[in-house]
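Collaborator request, handled under Task 6.
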Amino acid sequence: MYRTLIEDLKKWKNSMHRKPLILQGARQTGKTWLMKEFGRTEYKNTAYLFCQENPALEALFDAPFDKERLLNGFQLICGFKIEPEETLIIIDEIQDIPKAITSLKFFYEQAPEYHIICAGSLLGVSLHKDVSFPVGKVNFLNLYPLSFTEFLLAVGKERQADLINDSNQDPQILKAFSGEFTEYLKYYFYVGGMPEVVSAWVETKDFSEVRRVQKELLETYANDVSKHTSSEMANKIKQVWDSVPSQLAKENKKFLYSVVRGSARAREYENAINWLKNAGLLVKVHRVNKPGLPVKAYEDLASFKIFIIDTGLLCSMTNLSAKVLLEGNRLFTEFKGALTEQYVCQQMLSELKVEPFYWSAKDGTAEIDFIFQNDDEIVPVEVKAEINLQAKSLKVYRDAYSPKTAFRFSLAEPVDHGVLKDIPLYDLPFVKKWLKD
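Structure tokens returned to the collaborator:
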């Protein structure tokens, strides 16, 4: 199963400024597989070190850091000689041995010739605890569920994936195959991008099997919460998580604590939201007061939307029937287009690699679904679930701020209106062309 992030790993390997790398991402997004596949294809050997319930490895990191002693220990565990530049050292579930995280600074300063990559299913949560973190001594990459492009590759649609990634794509060819693209986009909405779920779909083409695997993943996440937090915190995290579909089904998708629990207040649930965010399960999209530069300087920390990491998991949480796939384009409009917004948010992170925000007028009369910063430009994004292109809010925004570029994603045909670009939802990766330009 090809993951585009492997190209970023190759750049990391060849960088003159390479540091130990932390690969972040939620559980079951494929971090371990990607690290091992990168080692298999790009190195002579891979030294895989698994930190969970590994007393020998814990004792190794517990002693004072010494390059020769650490490398000898790694070699005894792996059973072969670790050579600089030719061996990839993988430290998996690194959060289970906090001193292993601290050691990354030592390797950066004392042994930069060794290539080290590490990950952990709840590493993001651990990094926000009392761990001595090597600030400025590591590189980061984020792994998300499969993007729509990666999904097409996984199901054997290589030419279609190539077309939507082609910066010189022919609009007429795109229109000719729009029906097929829309069909596979519906599959992607329902199946999602979690590697195990996609594999189940590829192997069986059975939607009941897809739903079974999705439910198992959701149960795994619930078990993680129970295992790694107090019972009180676990209950709050569950309440926030369970409220996501209701939050997204509102006309105004701004997060409301009252949807979690009638009398809830921010101070009661803020830590629960942040736990889910740090675990990689939740995405917070903050409102900005105005689309200025840098956009983060105008972030309203009290107002935000929440999305989860995957459209398929959202379908599973709501028990959405697979029969909806047979009902035209109904899937795109389910609970007021929430699945479509979830999809766009997901692709902005995985395909475009941009941080999404949203904008709304102070009087509440207009709202732009997403905005993001591209170099010295703030780009508004309007999301439409079908082909209805009425966009009052986008007009208000354009009149007020005169953006150089604006995108409208829908099921309509691609049209370049100048400032405004109409992009089919399935062709979202084509936006990378404008980002590069």
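The cover message to the collaborator said: "The first helix runs from residue 5 to 14. The CA atoms of residues 94 and 120 lie 6 Å apart. Please let us know whether this matches your experimental observations."
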